[in-house]
Amino acid sequence: MGPLTGKTALVTGAGRGIGRAIALRLARDGARVGVHYGSSAEAAERTVGTIRDGGGQAFALQARLGIPGDAETVWTAFDEHADGVDILVNNAGVLGGRVPFAEVDEASYDEVFAVNTKAAFFLAQHGLSRLRDGGRIINVSTRFTHGARLPELTAYAMSKAAVDSLTATLAKELGPRAITVNAVGPGATDTDMNTARLATEEGRAAIAALSPLNRVAQPDDIADVVAFLASEDARWVTGQWIDASGGSML
Questions:
Q1: What is the pLDDT of residues 34-90, one digit of tens each?
Q2: Which of the chain's termini has less CB crowding within 10 Å, N or C?
Q3: How many Å apart are CA 156 and CA 144, to the nearest integer?
């Protein structure tokens, strides 16, 4: 039996990248995992299939984030498969492109905040009646909220800074129910979001050099931190932003 046996998790944006790695890791630890996706049904089904092939339990659910009623749609789909949740991982997010500050338009700004911030807020809010006491909320943030500033990612960093604030506030709100709330801040990770930057030997070397460990982060590196926060071992950790960037800001 794994440390999360008997638990049910919902991971948003779990078809690919970091979300997929989180879903796979939580399933290996024994959790039954709701694999949320926005548009890539095939990727989500591959994640579910991999979990089931490994002896785990998982189900897929679809809902587009960043539109009115998205949180309610997610939970309605979730309710068809489970009667409660123990672990909510707000992972789904959009970068909004690397755009100079002067060229950011309102449409892209609004999308970044709708997906990264508003959806996480209301997924947590609508999830409260489903989240069991002693549960976990884990928000995927970014290193760009803590000292690493890139003007071309201003809107993205702002949206995640709001999530960091939500994390600390919810930790106080939900503490009486023994529910912990934490955020994880990755740096550049080997996912499709960074394909172009990692496509050349020079680009990969430059990203690796950001960390004293001198390598590019893999999705599993982030998933393992999330798994710790989801476990009973992290019962005394709440309201925290955990640097998962390989020490890139040292």
A1: 999 999 999 999 999 999 999 999 999 999 999 999 999 999 999 999 999 999 999
A2: N
A3: 8
Answer whether residue 207 is part of any domain.
no
Taking the CA atoms of the chain, what radius of gyration do you get in angstroms? 17
Q: pLDDT tens for residues 206-248?
A: 899 999 999 999 999 999 999 999 999 999 999 999 999 999 9
What are 10's strand-pairing partners?
34, 88
pTM of the model: 0.95
Q: Which domain holds residue 16?
A: 8-193+219-244
In a domain, 102, yes or no: yes
Average pLDDT over residues 9-35: 98
Q: Is the dihedral of CA 79, 22, 197, 142 positive or negative?
A: positive
The string of pLDDT tens digits covering residues 185-200 is: 999 898 877 777 888 8
CATH number for the domain that contains residue 110: 3.40.50.720
Structure tokens that stand for 196 in this block = 């172009």
Query: Within a domain: residue 214?
Result: no
Cα–Cα distance between 236 and 133 in angstroms, integer?
Answer: 15
Considering its fold, how many domains does the chain have in total?
A: 1
User: Does 22 reside within a domain?
Assistant: yes
